[in-house]
């Protein structure tokens, strides 16, 4: 945790304003993360995945540092423009777009679109003529703690036809994209996708179409409980894979980090609402209910996929296994049960806990008013 976040939370407590869970995001950490990506992948442009944390201060900071932006909707495009990015630094990276939203994006100056099928290419050719399109390919998400489904992308063998169709309709067949799965802990996972991308480049070159760009997607991890490789290791592994598959004709590249850009910049302070036991048969197992759960910020605990570090003032003291649950009246609002979480025995009702690594995918996954609980309050410092 950064000193700035600690001081902010202490001040909030002193002022008696600590009456609900909140997220505090330290912009200095995001600035460092941006520089880390730029150093690790010096010839690659960064398109920050806005959905990870679209706070205006985060977008303005990244815009001022020279970042580009990966957006998924017209409101995200508008937020990014309002933060100072010019349209040539914004991609409409969602493969599922209403035609009227493509038209609106085009009106706003956006000329770079993701596709994964000929139907989407046709929408873009109709209302965003001459734009650049890149085709997303399916990618095996193994090694990722938050793997992606088959929802986005087509088989690599289909991508050639999709891009050729785009070319035929007057669009610029620009490149290939993929996403190796979020919180990808294995830097070697880019290799297989880059091989597929190089095959597509070759197939299209044989048909007289020159692709230029490979979008390496997101997936760069943030540290939760387990250590993860440094961003430099990802940069090295990606550079090796690019050289192996593209030889000395390296394509232009972009990355779309979300979690890796903002995850470790955020910290949630929450409060223990109740500690109880369910039955004598469960022995020492306690149930610890927090004032934050799946519906007001911690949605990524679904299937216990993301395991956040939880800090308490009694860290280091003897612990006991706990099931951790949220405050709502929905039975799925249990954060960790399959694998109980060790928390200090001395933990009491009313104690504050700190949940680390919560700068990404927390505020944006927070329900508006489920059960009367407000969306996660955020402070950007
Ligand atoms: C969400 C998303 C990202 C960001 O992924 P992370 O794993 O958070 O880095 C990047 N690209 C696209 C197209 C996305 O939808």
Automatic annotation (TrEMBL):
Family in the record: Belongs to the Orn/Lys/Arg decarboxylase class-II family.
Catalysis: reaction(s): L-ornithine + H(+) = putrescine + CO2
Species lineage: Bacteria, Pseudomonadati, Pseudomonadota, Alphaproteobacteria, Hyphomicrobiales
UniProt GO molecular function: ornithine decarboxylase activity
InterPro entries: Ala_racemase/Decarboxylase_C, De-COase2_N, De-COase2_pyr-phos_BS, Orn/DAP/Arg_de-COase, Orn_de-COase, PLP-binding_barrel
Stretches of the chain forming a coiled coil according to its record: none
Pfam families: Orn_Arg_deC_N
Ranges where the Orn/DAP/Arg decarboxylase 2 N-terminal domain occurs: 28-262
Keyword Lyase: yes
Protein name: ornithine decarboxylase
Transmembrane feature ranges: none
A GO biological process held by the record: putrescine biosynthetic process from arginine, via ornithine
Cofactor: pyridoxal 5'-phosphate
Pathway connected to this protein: Amine and polyamine biosynthesis; putrescine biosynthesis via L-ornithine pathway; putrescine from L-ornithine: step 1/1
Keywords from the UniProt entry: Lyase, Pyridoxal phosphate
Catalytic activity, EC: 4.1.1.17
GO cellular component: a single term: cytoplasm
The keyword 4Fe-4S is assigned to this record: no
Source organism of the structure: Methylocystis echinoides
Positions of post-translational N6-(pyridoxal phosphate)lysine modification: 51
Residue positions of the active site: 329 (proton donor)
């Amino acid at each position: 945790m950064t000193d700035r976040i600690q001081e902010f939370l202490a001040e909030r407590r002193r002022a008696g304003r600590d009456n609900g869970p909140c997220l505090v995001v330290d912009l200095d950490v995001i600035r460092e993360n941006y520089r880390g990506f730029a150093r690790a992948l010096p010839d690659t442009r960064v398109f920050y995945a806005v959905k990870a944390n679209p706070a205006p201060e985060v977008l303005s900071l990244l815009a001022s540092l020279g970042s580009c932006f990966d957006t998924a909707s017209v409101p995200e495009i508008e937020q990014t423009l309002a933060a100072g990015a010019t349209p040539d630094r914004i991609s409409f990276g969602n493969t599922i777009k209403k035609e009227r939203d493509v038209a609106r994006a085009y009106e706003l100056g956006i000329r770079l679109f993701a596709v994964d099928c000929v139907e989407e290419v046709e929408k873009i050719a109709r209302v965003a003529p001459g734009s650049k399109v890149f085709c997303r390919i399916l990618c095996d998400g193994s090694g990722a703690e938050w793997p992606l489904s088959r929802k986005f992308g087509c088989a690599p063998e289909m991508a050639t036809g999709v891009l050729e169709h785009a070319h035929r309709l007057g669009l610029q067949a620009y490149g290939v994209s993929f996403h190796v799965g979020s919180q990808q802990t294995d830097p070697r996972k880019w290799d297989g996708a880059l091989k597929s991308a190089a095959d597509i480049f070759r197939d299209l070159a044989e048909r007289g179409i020159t692709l230029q760009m490979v979008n390496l997607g997101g997936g760069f991890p943030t540290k939760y409980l387990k250590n993860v490789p440094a961003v430099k290791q990802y940069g090295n592994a990606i550079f090796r894979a690019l050289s192996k598959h593209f030889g000395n004709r390296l394509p232009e590249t972009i990355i779309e980090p979300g979690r890796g850009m903002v995850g470790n910049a955020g910290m949630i302070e929450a409060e223990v609402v109740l500690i109880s036991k369910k039955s004598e048969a469960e022995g020492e197992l306690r149930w610890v209910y927090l004032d934050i759960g799946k519906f007001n910020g911690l949605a990524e605990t679904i299937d216990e996929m993301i395991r956040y570090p939880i800090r308490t003032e009694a860290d280091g003291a003897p612990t006991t296994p706990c099931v951790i649950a949220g405050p709502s009246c929905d039975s799925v609002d249990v954060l960790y049960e399959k694998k109980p979480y060790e928390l200090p025995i001395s933990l009491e009702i009313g104690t504050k806990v700190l949940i680390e690594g919560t700068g990404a995918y927390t505020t944006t996954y927070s329900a508006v008013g489920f059960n009367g609980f407000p969306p996660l309050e955020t402070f950007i410092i």
